[in-house]
Amino acid sequence: MTGPLKGIRGVVLTQAWAGSYCTELFAMAGADIVQLEVRKRPDSWRGMYTAPMSKSMTEISTARHVWNVNPNFNAVNLGKRSFTLDLSRDKGVEIFKSLVKHADFVAENFSPRVMGNLGFSYEELCEIKPDIILASLSAYGHDGPWCNVPGIGGTIEPTSGMSALLGYGDGVPLNSGVMYPDAVAGLYGFSGLLTALHYRNRTGKGQFVDLSMQEANLANIGEAALEYTQTKQIPNALGNRHKIYAPHGIFPCADSVEGGKKWIAIATETNAQWLALCDISGKSWANNSKFIDNVLRKENEEELNQAISFWTVGQDRDVLSTFLNSKGVIAAPVLNAKEVLNDPVLRSRGVIIELDHPEVGKASQVGAPFHFSKDKISVVRPSPLQGEHSFEIFSELLGMDRDEYEKLVTENISGEGPPE
Amino acid sequence: MNQSIKALDDLIVLDLSTSIAAAWCTRLFADFGANVVMIESPDGNPLRRAEPNNSDGSNQFTDHLLSNKKSLQLDLESINGRNLFIDLIAKCDVLVESAVPSQLEKYDLGFDTLHDSFPDLVVLSLTPYGRSNEYSLAPANSLAIAARSGWASINGFEEKGPLSTSSNQSAYCSGVLAYGAALAAVSRTKEESGSGQYVDISEFEVMVSNFAPPALSSEYNGNIAKQKSIHETNLLAGPVSVQDGHFALTLSRAHFFRDAMMVLGLEDLAENLDLHEMWYRMAHKDLWMGRVQDAMSEWTREKLFDELALRRVVAGPVLKMNELVENVHLRERGFWNFLKDDHLQILRPGAPFKLSETPWALEHAAPNIGQHNEEIAHMILQSSATVQSRDGEI
User: Fold this and answer.
1) A-B contacts (CB, under 8 Å)
2) In terms of domains, do A206 and A129 share one?
3) Residues near A87 by Cβ (< 8 Å), separated by ≥ 6?
4) What residues pair up with A17 in beta bridges, in sequence order?
5) Mean pLDDT, chain B, whole residue set
6) What gap in Å lies between CA B24 and CA B309, rounded to an integer?
7) What is residue B389's predicted lDDT score, i.e. its pLDDT?
8) Where are the alpha helices (DSSP H) in chain B?
9) Domain CATH for A310
């Protein structure tokens, strides 16, 4: 692995999405991320051991274990190494603590009391390595009356204010198509850890990073928060519309794509963009007294949107989007997941990559979202199999020999798959 | 914890941001202690000209995104202005730009040129589509990015059409990732002299990165992730109606289901062991879904949340911004803050994460254009004799 964080090591207990995404960003930027997995309670994003293999995976001869072929897990753990330990056993705890001595940071996304129960509180980790950084990504943070309330993306979206801002403008709050708040928390976790690492590099002092998913997501809609505190007007979901500008929407196009209709997003934020849109459409909207300026367009937005839809429904989505862009108008095709994976710019920039996973085989997936001119991201490894690197990690960092490792496996302290 | 210690107070960031995304990135630098100097033309940062929302003509973008920063008014078109800008670059660690096309290239100060003279400098570019590709010059906003990144294809209901993410999500997400990426690049310069580099972040690519799980599910399964049907408006899809609003309830585990049924007074469902199996619950939604939602509709959000939280069932009320401002948990966590010099005492959103030793701090309101001309001249250039302040402009 290459990247600007080469030489940094995280010994992490991250799981599901938020924590795993946070530490995956480190791995893709070159850090050595060794991720502990507990076989008795596998990462929920690996799924249950007893879950049936999906139909598509049953057709792949190398897909042997359902927990290694879950797309959720494999989407957010690129570049990591996986090891397993039973933390209910003294030997498991001892090995984990030995690994912490080799870490720059520890990261986890349990409920606040879990690390303390395991004997891995920040204070206890500092006794092992005084300059350690611990990042905890929990639902509501480590203090306050809700600190022990459990939460996941699907409940943080409502409690952070995100759901109230997502919807079609009919007063019904929605959650996103998948648990978006996890991704947001992962991004802030990545940056929080890097802030702490910068300080440690300067001073030799570690610290505790307390990330509340609720707060990270609320910060991500900070301008809406400030709008309320300044104006006392409660911001609501606007659908695809904008508070100020019109047009600002998603409109139907000709033809369909696998999975549904084709759509295009179009917005104008300046008069020049509006006039360019009018010109391209060949319609007389620019002379319509109802649309003569943005204030009137906003007042008559429903009628304007109908007129634009009537026009776009006969247009080729991609041709129109490219042409509108070339004339300075904000526009983009609504791409589905398969189209995103085939986007030529994402592929040429190495954001969509082909990876050869040991069980799944070759697949296209999303890689690193950053580009460094000197420390280029040249290789990204597929997400690890459960426990794939246990011996490699124990041997490399602790000097363990094969016999000792096999004893751990025999005693169910390490290994792969469901414990016996 | 010493309130005066800042994680990044050894860094100087030169801020040419013109977008919400880049301004959020540099705001984070400022909040964690970096000396962030905005270079503003006489017209000021374009965010200052966003549509006003307040009676005094100010707007949330200025107040929110430019606070904690310093403002230096500088005419980069003039020879003196350009020379002073280069003097400033010599002092800074990170230079942030977001204009499309590149403002630095316009002034013949592209990365390669700068790197020759300032080998430790990190130049961060944060734009809608990244540099040097066929989308680079395309105009975009968060709606366009939500469309192209796949998010609009899975949000909302298929009967109502694609739905964008809320507000400016691509801007804030890319802003925080860019902040982290820049810190990663800075860490290299601290360990190896001459390793300054160019960091290219795209709002589009960050939102695609956030979209990785549904993208890979589509790739593995061959079934494209898509919107739900409006007929699937139920508690598996998101919040449902309760007495005073909406509420989300997760029933993914057996004990969540059992305990939630007990709270809702549906003991027969709680005792039905078949329903403790996830696959059975999903296959027999008609047995419980309607009854559960009917029972929930009799509860208030607060009462239901309190009862479920006691049993550690994952659930949450839909909170609006007025409720979040009053939320006891956020208050006790110290999330909401006042600016020290704000006589109006406007509450402001706080730290996205807490650091135990080097806390986030919101200290200064957004500056006026050129408010810090003299201070920057003295502090950074250390050559005030060469700097003439005239009409607020250097």
Assistant:
1) 490
2) yes
3) A36, A38, A93, A96, A118
4) none
5) 92
6) 34
7) 44
8) 20-31, 60-65, 79-91, 103-106, 111-117, 142-148, 169-191, 203-210, 212-221, 254-263, 267-271, 278-283, 289-296, 301-310, 321-326, 328-333, 373-376
9) 3.30.1540.10
Read off the pLDDT of residues A105-131 as tens digits, 9 standing for 90 and up: 999 999 999 999 999 999 999 999 999
pLDDT, tens digit, for every residue of B37-47? 999 998 899 99
| B11 close to B35: Cβ distance less than 8 angstroms | yes
pLDDT digits (tens, 9 = 90+) for B60-78: 889 999 999 999 999 999 9
pLDDT value of residue A379: 73
Which helix or strand (DSSP H or E) is residue A310 part of?
helix A301-312
A252, A125: one domain:
no
Structural domain contains residue A81: yes
Residues of chain B with pLDDT > 90, as a percent, come to 80
CATH code (residue A89): 3.40.50.10540
- Same domain, yes or no: A179 and A294: no
Nearest to A135 by CA among B330, B25, B11, B180: B180
Distance CA B2, CA A258 (A): 57
Answer whether residue A150 is part of any domain: yes
At B176-202, the pLDDT tens digits run 999 999 999 999 999 999 999 999 999
- Identify the helix (H) or strand (E) that includes residue A84: strand A81-84
Q: Does B239 touch chain A (CB under 8 A)?
A: yes
Question: Is B222's CB within 8 Å of A56's CB?
Answer: yes
Q: How far is A7 from chain B (nearest CA, A)?
A: 10
Virtual torsion, Cα B117, B122, B128, B134, nearest 10 deg: 50
- Tokens describing residue A111: 């409920």
Q: Which two tokens stand for residue A93?
A: 């705890």
B321, B328, B336, B348, best to mutate vs chain A, most A CBs in 10 Å? B321
Q: Is the pTM of this model over 0.95?
A: yes
- Using an 8 Å Cβ cutoff, are A211 and A138 in contact? yes
Rg over CA atoms, chain A: 25
CA distances B172 to B23, B64, B158, B162, Å, are: 9, 12, 27, 21
Tokens of B339: 């600016």
Torsion, Cα A132 A14 A63 A360, to 10 degrees, reads -80
Residue A1: list chain B partners with CB under 8 A.
Answer: none
For residue A358, tell me if it sits in a domain: no
Shared-domain flag, residues A386 and A283: no
Could you list the residue range(s) of the whole structural domain that residue A289 is in?
A: 248-341
Asked if B134's CB is within 8 angstroms of A71's CB, the reply is no
Q: Which residues of B touch A173 (CB under 8 A)?
A: 238-239, 246, 318
Cβ pair A192:B147 closer than 8 A: no
Q: Are residues A137 and A280 in the same domain?
A: no
Tell me which chain B residue has its CA closest to the CA of residue A186: B210
One domain for residues A184 and A254? no
Taking contacts as CB-CB distances below 8 angstroms, the residues of chain B near A374 are 188, 195-198
Structural domain tally of chain A? 2
Residue A403 gets which letter from DSSP? H
Given a cut of 50, is residue B394 above it in pLDDT?
no
Q: Please, what are the domains in chain B?
A: 12-211+364-386 (3.40.50.10540), 240-317 (3.30.1540.10)
Residue A330 carries which side chain, given as an amino acid letter?
I
Q: How many CB atoms lie within 10 A of CB B332?
A: 14
A138: helix, coil or strand?
Answer: strand
Count of other CB atoms within 10 angstroms of residue A301: 18
**Averaged pLDDT, B367-375:** 94
Q: Is A273 part of any domain?
A: yes
Restricting to B residues 271-330, those with a Cβ less than 8 Å away from any Cβ of A are: 309, 312-322, 324-325, 328-330
For B333, which of A143, A190, A352 is closest by C-beta distance?
A: A143
